[in-house]
Amino acid sequence: MNTPSPKAEVNSTASIPAYARSFSGACRPGEPFYDTDEIDYSDLPQSWIQEARIDARLCAASYVDYGPAPIMNKKGKKKEMRARPKGKGIVSFDVPKMVRQKAEHVKRYGLGGYSTGPLSATSVIGLQA
User: Fold this and answer.
1) Are the C-beta atoms of residues 28 and 83 closer than 8 Å to each other?
2) Cα separation of 117 and 101, whole Å?
3) Model-level pTM?
4) What CA–CA distance (Å, rounded) separates 79 from 56?
5) What is the pLDDT of residues 41-55, one digit of tens each?
6) Where do the DSSP E strands lie in the chain?
7) Which residues lie closer than 8 Å to 118 by C-beta, 6 or more apart?
C-alpha cells in the first residue's frame, strides 16, 4: 500500500497568523483564562515583540501583559506575578524568527506554501524550492 508523502499534496499549506491572540487572566499556556481577544499584529506594542519569550520547540512566541504596575512589597520586590484585570494576560503571536522557522518547515516538507492572517481573510503565499 502506498502512502502519499506530504510532497505529493500540492495544495497542502501551513498557516502563519498575522495577528496575536490574548488570554486574559493567564500568564502561561494551560492556565485558566476568562476572556480571549484577537489583536492585529500591526497593533502590538513594539516592546512586546522585542521582549517576547520564544519557544523554538513549539515554534511559538508569547508576551505576558500584566496590566498596570505590579504591587510591590516593602523591600521593593514584586509582590505578585499574575495577570491583573486590566492586562491582556498571555499574548501569543509570531515574531520574524518563528515565521522563518515555519517557512523552512514548509520548504523541508514540500508543502504548497503558507497562509497568513486570520482565517476570515487568509492569503496563500507560494514558496519556490
Assistant:
1) no
2) 17
3) 0.63
4) 30
5) 888 999 998 999 998
6) 13-16, 19-24, 35-40, 53-55, 60-65, 89-93, 113-116, 123-126
7) 17, 18, 19, 38
